[in-house]
Amino acid sequence: MASVEAAAEHERILREIESTDTNCIGPTLRSVYDGQAHGFFMEKLEGRIRNHDREIEKMCNHHFQGFVDSITELLKVRAEAQKLKSQVTDTNSRLQDDGKVILTTMEELTQCRVQQRNIATTVEKLTRCLPVLQMYSKLQEQMKAKRYYPALRTLEQLEQRCLPQAGEYRFCAIMAENIPRLRVRIRDVSMSDLKDFLESIRKHSDKIGETAMKQAQAQDQRSLNSAGLQQRGGSGRRVRKVSPSTELDGQSSSPLSEQDSGILDVEDEEDDEEEEVPGAQELVDFSPVYRCLHIYTVLGARDTFESYYRKQRRKQARLVLQPHSNMHETLEGYRRYFNQIVGFFVVEDHVLHTTQGLVNRAYVEELWEMALSKSIAALRTHSSYCTDPDLVLDLKNLIVLFADTLQGYGFTVNQLFDMLLEMRDQYGEILLKKWAMSFRQILDQDNYSPIPVATPEEYHSIISQFPFQDPELDKTPFPKKLPFSEFVPKVYCQLKEFIYACLKFSEDLHLSSTEIDDMIRKSTNLLLTRTLSNCLQYAIKKKNVGLAELVQVIINTTHLEQSCHYLEEFISNITSVLPDNMNATKLYGTSTFKIDQFLQLADYDWMATQAAGQASDYLSDLIAFLCSTFAVFTHLPGKAIEHGTLPGKVAQTACMSACKHLSTSLLQLLLEADVRQVSMGALQQFNVDAEGGEREWFARAGPVPGFQGDTLLLAFIDLRQLLDLFTQWDWSTYLADYGRPTCKYLRVNPHTALVLLEKMKDTSRKNNMFSQFRKNERDKQKLIDTVVKQLRNLISSHQS
């Protein structure tokens, strides 16, 4: 039983040896040697080996022929392999030879590809750098040509767009380092040009002012030649012509092509014999100030530029306003003084309308107020030295032309006309002194004997000089004697000359006929009661005057006294004021003075957000005073005339004059320079005062009977149409119908509307610092800006 198990175990071990890897056979053999039957195992192993040898031998015998055949074939293949090897060696040799050429070509191709890549990279880099170089070259050309504003724009493009795209190169770094220095250079050069510009306009102010005053004078002459075709507007300002190309409405950010379109337009309608008046653009080139303004704006230093410009112009204004010490000696001195002032403000007005905020309306008005006060003070001082009435009269005409010229550019000149009224008194005193010398000369040359008349021609010649009527003397034959001496007709002619001289000074002072009549009568009364009386007393007190001479003086004086009513008629004829209206003149003077006193009490809040809803107290008190005054005056007894009693007619004249003065004063109160801003609420309150219960009742109820319909309301028509236009905001109708006889707002002067609209424009901008964030405020501002632009275009188009 044990032998069977051992045999089975040995069989298993043999199978394991046959099937197991030789690396793991050690443990198997060890198990054999550990047992007791390793001899028996060896026998079994040898028997197994013999079996395998027999099987191998059988297999070899079976495959021997195939092996022999394979060896035989292999021997045959060896020869072919040797031949193939030889061919392969030859082929390889040839391939190596050919490969050397290919390798050389490939190396050359590789080098070309590297060069091509380098060229492409270089071209790409140059493509990026070329715009920088071109831009920098363009910059140098612009700097060389002194086109500094385009150069600044080029510099900005170079810095912000070209240099970042080019990359980091040494020349780019050098350019970047030069950019700040170039900006400083451009700024300094533009400032130098500005200084030259300021010096230029200082030198040319006289010529510019002369040009402006010549144009104003020519326009006045044309207005006189075409009288009745066009009336002046409510403010009486001359139309200022502005070329559309000079209007900057916020859509352009560059200078005006570095050229100035001029300040003054020259009319081509001058007479052939008159020289063409050059425009200011031919006298001053405004391009430096435009360039410098835009350059400083781009550099972010606009405030600095504005401050410098205004400071320098203030200094120039003070120099212009300093009169020469001998200015009073000749009219040319005054003319040169006025020309410089007009030239200065014409330039400022041009800069105001052709730049965006370099100067504003408030700044110009502040300068004008300073100029007005200084010039009036200088004129008062220097005119006080004048003793020649002709020089004073010429000075008055020059001041009127000066005022009208500046009024045409929107400046208020009321104080100048007030000063002219003061000069009127001075002129009257100078005339009295001159006529005193004439009277004394006539008295010295008089023979104090009746005038002998030999022929009718001599008689009519004397009667034409002096209004003498004596029916008894007319019946007597020639020769005959007139009762008075030659002193009487000569003095009477001098009185008429004096009246004409007084009338000349009153021309163009915007005075009513009644005011002119009152002034002439007062001056004539002074001439008679003071000057002529003193001359007669001087003649009487002479030691060589006898009784006959004294009697003749009495006769002469009596005839002159009797001719006074002829002088009154003469004054009435030249002033177109009836003698019955002299009382109206006195009443007008009183009412005008009272109206001015009441208006001084006006205290409007020009920045009010809404109206108070009722008329102001000062206006209520004023109307109550006027109503009571005219009511009392109409109850006076009077002589019956065609349309009523004489006092009633006088009251009507004075009432109409008071209404006109009240309307004009209210309008002037709204437009005066001190009122820099006007809100819609303040305008509505002003409208309440103008059209509310008191004024409407005053005009419609009629404090003075005898007016037909709404006659008195016509005195307020200029003010009424202006206020209706603004309170109803009916600009479309006004702009569409302007210039037509049927226009709803026919009496609204576009200049007056523009001045008031600019005051509302400033209010809209400054009323609230956050208004720009509210859509309704922005829309309102845009609407005002649009209307302002349309008004300016309207003025330009209708006056071109």
UniProtKB/TrEMBL annotation:
Polar residues compositional bias, start-end:
216-225, 246-260
The protein's UniProt keywords, in alphabetical order, are: Exocytosis, Transport
Q: Which domain of life is it from?
A: Eukaryota
Q: Which parts of the sequence belong to the Exocyst complex subunit EXOC6/Sec15 C-terminal domain?
A: 415-759
Report any Pfam family annotated for this entry.
Answer: EXOC6_Sec15_N
Looking up Gene3D superfamilies in the UniProt record yields: Dsl1p vesicle tethering complex, Tip20p subunit, domain D (1.20.58.670), Exocyst complex subunit Sec15 C-terminal domain, N-terminal subdomain (1.10.357.30)
Where does the Exocyst complex component EXOC6/Sec15 N-terminal domain start and stop, copy by copy? 44-213
Q: Where is this region: Disordered?
A: 216-280
Task: List all Acidic residues biased stretches.
Answer: 265-277
GO term, biological process aspect, one = intracellular protein transport
Give a GO cellular-component term: plasma membrane
**Function recorded in the entry:** Component of the exocyst complex involved in the docking of exocytic vesicles with fusion sites on the plasma membrane.
Family statement = Belongs to the SEC15 family.
Identification of the protein by name: Exocyst complex component
Name its species. Answer: Alosa alosa
